[in-house]
Amino acid sequence: MKRFAFINQKGGVGKTTLAINLARALTLQGKRILLIDFDPQANASSGLGVRVNKEKSIYQALVEEDFESFVKEPFKGLFLLPSSIDLVGLEVELVKHPEREKVLRDFLFSVTFKGLPLEKAFDFIFIDSPPSLSLITVNVLVASEGVIIPLQCEYYALEGLSLLVRTVRRVKAAFNPELRLFGMVLTMYDSRNRLSQEVAEEARRHFPWLLFNTVIPRSVRVSEAPSFGKPVLDYVPNHKVSQAFLRLAEEFLRRNA
Ligand SMILES: Nc1ncnc2c1ncn2[C@@H]1O[C@H](COP(=O)(O)OP(=O)(O)OP(=O)(O)O)[C@@H](O)[C@H]1O
Ligand SMILES: [Mg+2]
């Protein structure tokens, strides 16, 4: 698979952090990654040190049907299509669009990069999404092949998951037969905290085939890195959380092989 959606309608569970750092870890393995920021909060953009700018956002790229003048390469091999707050307006405009669920997909399949279709130009395409099950999120699912769900090791981590899984099934049936649940990743894991262990056990019991073995530990370094516009892997390369993202990238490649 090439195209992956990072989805969880619950806010602040680690979608953006996972998308940025898994992408970065894969570039260190020599892969070329396109990260599409499809969240009006634009955290993936600012977290990679890209100035958020209405004129240069994915919203404008969709309007102009142009990829090449909007894509950036903030880190070697890690390409970003940035977002901005005006993506909020897309939700409203989509409602009256005849193919409202397929706008992002059609864009990805019609534009090129250096003369190549995007699937040829990049090894993987990651799409970060907002904390909702809106039309924006449906567009992300219709444009993707694999779904990656981060689970925060906190109370209620598994709540809402059945709705999320149902939504994936509905989108698969109606618009995108190639869509699959690809994996779940436990984030913000604190081994000294009983609750973290309980969430991990419960997730393992319910989704044994989906859960990645690698768990992302909780570290204040992770929350500091975006303010320097860097992935954790560049901010504290030797830290255990960076090592976890590197292991996760290896597991991701094995699972995808
Ligand atoms: N492993 C971690 N350890 C400590 N803090 C973390 C970790 N992962 C993420 N965070 C912090 O938790 C907050 C939420 O993370 P993030 O922005 O990645 O979640 P999100 O699901 O993308 O949020 P949203 O739903 O708003 O898009 C951020 O402040 C982030 O820095
Ligand atoms: Mg986010």
What's the helix and strand layout?
Layout: E1 3-6, H1 15-27, E2 33-37, H2 43-47, H3 58-64, E3 72-75, E4 78-81, H4 87-95, H5 103-110, E5 112-113, E6 116-117, H6 118-121, E7 124-128, H7 135-142, E8 146-152, H8 161-174, E9 180-187, H9 194-206, H10 220-224, H11 232-235, H12 240-256
Parallel strand pairs: 1-7, 1-8, 2-4, 2-7, 8-9
Antiparallel strand pairs: 3-4, 5-6
Helix pairs in contact: 1-12
Characterise the protein shown here.
The protein is an alpha/beta fold. It has one domain: P-loop containing nucleotide triphosphate hydrolases (Rossmann fold, 3-Layer(aba) Sandwich). 42% of the residues lie in helices and 16% in strands. The chain contains twelve helices and nine strands. A seven-stranded mixed sheet has the order 3-4-2-7-1-8-9, with helices on both faces. It has a two-stranded antiparallel sheet with strand order 5-6. Strand 8 (146-152), helix 8 and strand 9 (180-187) form a beta-alpha-beta unit. The chain binds adenosine-5'-triphosphate and magnesium ion. Adenosine-5'-triphosphate binds at residues 11-17, 39, 41, 43, 131, 187-188, 216, 218-219, 222-223, 241.
Relevant terms:
single chain; alpha/beta; Rossmann fold; seven-stranded mixed β-sheet; globular; binds adenosine-5'-triphosphate
Summarize the entry for a quick read.
By secondary structure, this protein is an alpha/beta fold. The chain has helices at residues 15-27, 43-47, 58-64, 87-95, 103-110, 118-121, 135-142, 161-174, 194-206, 220-224, 232-235, 240-256, and strands at 3-6, 33-37, 72-75, 78-81, 112-113, 116-117, 124-128, 146-152, 180-187.
